[in-house]
Amino acid sequence: MVWAVLRRTLVMAVTVFAASVVVFAACSALPGDTATVLLGERADPASVAALRHEIGTDRPLAVQYADWATGMLGGDFGTSVVTRRPVWPQIADRLQVTASLVVTGMALAVLLAVPLGVLASRRRIGPLVSVFGQLGMAVPVFVAGILLSYVFAVRLRVLPAGGYAPLGDPYQWVRHMALPALSLGLVQGAVLVRYVRGEVLEVMEKEYIRTALATGRTWWGALWHHGLRNAVVPVLTVIGVQFVVLLSGAVIVEAVFTLPGVGQMLLRAVEGRDLLLVQGVVMILIALVLVINYLVDLLCLAVDPRLRRPA
Amino acid sequence: MRSAAPRLAALAAVAGLLLTACSQSAADQGRGDPGTLLVGGEVEPQTLDLTVTSNASIPSMLLGNVYETLVDRDQKGTVTPGLASSWDIDRDRRRYVFHLRQGVRFGNGDPFTARDVVFSFDRVRAAASRHPFKQQFAAVSDVKARDDHTVEVDLKRPSNLWLLNLSGPVGVILNQRAVGSLADRPVGTGPFTFGRWDRGNQIVLARNDAYWGAKTQFKTVTFRFYNDPNALGNAMLAGELDLITNVPAPQSLPQFRDGGRFRITTGHTNGEVVLGFNDARPALRDRRVRQAITQAIDRAALLKTVWAGYGTLIGSMVPPTDPWYEDLSKRVPYDPAASRRLLDAAGYGGGLKLRFRVPNRPYATQAAQFVADQLGRIGVRVQMEQVEFPGRWLDEVFTKGDYDMTVIMHSEPLDIVQYGNPSYYWHYDNPKVQRELAAADAGTPAEEVAGMREVARTIADDAASCWLWLMPSIQVSARNVTGVPPNVVTGGYDLSSIRKS
Amino acid sequence: MRRTGFVLVGLVVAAGLLSLLWAPFDPARVEPGGALLPPLRDGHLLGTDGLGRDVFSQVLVGARATLAVGVAAVLIASVLGVPLGVAAGMAGGWPSELVMRTTDLMLAFPALLLALVLAAAFGASAVTGIVAVGISSVPVFARVSRAATLQVMAQEYVTAARACGRRAPGVAVRHVLPNVAPVLLVQATVAFAIAVTAEAALSYLGLGVQAPTPSWGRMLHENQAYLFTNPELVCWPALAIGLTVLGFNLAGDVLADRLDPARRARP
């Protein structure tokens, strides 16, 4: 067990390091540099060169990377040239919004997918649920968002059309989060339904379930007492994998509902060539994905002892 | 397996939350309160320091509201007193003496004196200054405080434009103690003080109770940002805003027409949408080719389809709010037959191929697709390509000149002067225009108006660019909001005339 | 029901092919006088958009962009992913581990994030979108083909072939690839559906196929301004995207059921 955890931790650390190199290299390759964009159309070349020197983009790439990476280890992501503020607190501000969206979206998706997926594995209701799954998968996330906002915010006027309220005011937070989370959750839920259905079908054909059924348990009873635990591991893994998709979806949903999350910040930062901010956001998002998958791995270890043997 | 109860309880709790969320009606926070104004805007600036970037959304919020300038320009474009109650100009037009208003204080309590003017102007002019509009101060040779309330400015050469430019972002008077926090806590002498900035969401201005002039009705004014035009529209429809100061797409206006809940105000801006030619290309250096392109484009139809008919046809680089404006829109009329003849005469009748690099902004791509189709009809082969704005467009088209034609809105006031600058990205080099511009800048007010009018006509006849249209100012306000300033003149959005009942 | 997916996919392919030969109007043809016509007016089956361009022709020609993005993305994903996965599966040991870790890293990059950075670096275009979607599908292809390869390698005839002295590339081509192919075909339909959705999403953010090339995603982007006055302008491309994705998903399901004996046995 200890060895399994240790090994996964090491792999994650190496992957995060590799990711940081890739992110840095990609961001440094961006044409159109910060100084030119910031100073705009009427700046003279001398000012641009001076600014470039001041922010250090005239140094060798390796030095810039080392500087950035060592800073990050100490929690210092550098100071944005454009906003003149340290990068980390800016990201931290926005992370709350994106996290709210992703977590509520995922929660809704799971709440939707698990019961529906289980229902779908019953022959009678199956086709109906599959239709929902197929439709949900076919509707792009932003179309769902636009439709929901049109119906609930514009026509019915029961929910705000956009914006964010901090968690400190739970009532407003829920109201502002409802539509974005619903758009994300509906589409994501549709994807998950298929997996849940597949897993339940597979588990319910296992010997121990047949035994349970033979000893007089009902289908539902067998599923609840023996099946779910075994269906949980693959579904958890899928949720971990889908987390990336969810993040992409969140970037778009933030645009539809003007949520001030990291996605919106990233779009603006790319436009303004706020290089350190772009690097910081991308790095944190990727690290987040890796950590979530790592945690899912650990969770699977805890649920399923068979995984604890060394691979 | 553990008991099912906690799981079910959690499920019920979340479902309950959602239900309450859905059953409550939208709380219009602040919408009914005449002490607050909620303004919706599209682009949130990344910094509030208008001395380091030319981003127009910063002065739009701060100029005239938080910051003030020595002179102002009214809705008709006329220069009016600002922080200077009057000024004298000597006979050779090279020395300006400004008499400053007394008893004015900055938002942080500091008194406003001539030293602040010298400090602010010297900050623009300094050798190490990276001010984006430093060029507008090129004519200044010296700035001195004669006493606490008199400032003397000496120019190297007479310049009318210098005084006009003072009403823009380059002329804002900064507080010496606050320049360290220009990026996130601006301090000025205006009717509002900076309140707070919830990044990604809103900027709040608060009433300056010590303001020297007429006090505003609003205790707070909140600018909220919506990156998506539909979200901005939805917020207005859902009653979360009092005012949208710049409707991003006129096609969305019909949604505000029903039921008389809203008022639509249109006016002029400084934003000329210019089809720019790169005169470094031999074909486009030929006046006949530029004229042929101009005559091939039905600008009236373009405005109608691309911008729903909102906006003004201008025919030169002058908005109606400049003192020397005259209607030149029919000077080089739409005439495809004449256009073909001109192309033939120039030797490009057999086909001209142009690289049309367009910024990825809705107005530009829509207009460019229209232009490309029309040019195709006179036999010009247009290779259209979208370029990310601002990053790549600024770098490749604007700085490196890697393009044949482009479309971009020039929103700075008085940008007609760029036709006198051969190193500008058009590479338009016409000595006649350069002479006329210099003469107009140095002349008396009457000579200035006549001279600038001449410049506008010369560039129109020369088809220096093709001016597609002047971007309108389109505002939507709630029924109970009145007095929105229709025109954008200095680049600032003046809140002082707005009332809410 | 079983056939619906193939019918939808066939329709999209047919539309794309037809558009190469014929469309009722030039989709780029601007008609200032005929903007925003309702459906069936003046020969415009689905009416015209804000610039007076024929919507039906745009939908027809737009199928090409969608197919091109899908095909290209699947090609990139399989050209990079399959050899990687097969090689890893056959070699085992540390190369296999390396491939798995690399795909782990790649899986951590959200496709949209990649597209965003690529668009900033090389300009927003169909190509950057395709590359982004293609690259993000590489890990899935690599993993699926590695898993399938492992299965094949355990078969007796493969062991026999290797014992007879066949070299690895020969085994891969003769025995492994044919057996991996069906699984990959299913994966390709899934990747195709993802590519279509991704193109729409990128175009919604203005980072996908660029003007003047007609594409469904870009139609959505451009016609957004008319959402409240002419919602049908947004509906047509949205419908086209939805039906295409639906088609590929359904077809993928059917293929999976047919090609995977374990799944065929299920209810």
UniProtKB/TrEMBL annotation, chain A:
Signal sequence region: 1-25
Main location: membrane
ABC transmembrane type-1 domain sequence ranges: 95-296
Coiled-coil parts of chain: none
PROSITE patterns on file: ABC_TM1, PROKAR_LIPOPROTEIN
Keywords associated with the record: Cell membrane, Membrane, Signal, Transmembrane, Transmembrane helix, Transport
Classification via InterPro entries: BPD_transp_1_N (IPR045621), MetI-like (IPR000515), MetI-like_sf (IPR035906)
Listed Pfam families: BPD_transp_1, BPD_transp_1_N
Transmembrane parts of this sequence: 97-119, 131-153, 173-196, 231-257, 277-303
Membrane topology note: Multi-pass membrane protein
Localisation per UniProt entry: Cell membrane
Family in the record: Belongs to the binding-protein-dependent transport system permease family.
Protein name, UniProt field: ABC transporter permease
Organism the protein comes from: Actinomadura fibrosa
UniProtKB/TrEMBL annotation, chain B:
Name of the protein in question: ABC transporter substrate-binding protein
Keywords, ordered alphabetically: Signal
Organism of origin: Actinomadura fibrosa
Signal peptide extent: 1-26
Keyword Signal: yes
SUPFAM superfamilies xrefs: Periplasmic binding protein-like II (SSF53850)
Ranges for domain Solute-binding protein family: 78-408
Cited Pfam families: SBP_bac_5
Source taxon at top rank: Bacteria
Family annotation (Gene3D superfamilies): Dipeptide-binding Protein, Domain 3, Periplasmic binding protein-like II
The keyword Signal is assigned to this record: yes
UniProt xrefs under CDD domains: PBP2_NikA_DppA_OppA_like_6
UniProtKB/TrEMBL annotation, chain C:
Top-rank lineage group of the source organism: Bacteria
Gene3D superfamilies the record matches: MetI-like
Mode of membrane association: Multi-pass membrane protein
Keywords associated with the record: Cell membrane, Membrane, Transmembrane, Transmembrane helix, Transport
Subcellular localization(s) per the UniProt record: Cell membrane
ABC transmembrane type-1 domain mapped to chain residues: 63-252
CDD domains: TM_PBP2
Transmembrane segments: 67-93, 105-135, 236-256
SUPFAM superfamilies registered for this protein in UniProt: MetI-like
Keyword Membrane: yes
The UniProt record lists the keyword Cell membrane: yes
Family per record: Belongs to the binding-protein-dependent transport system permease family.
Protein name as annotated: ABC transporter permease
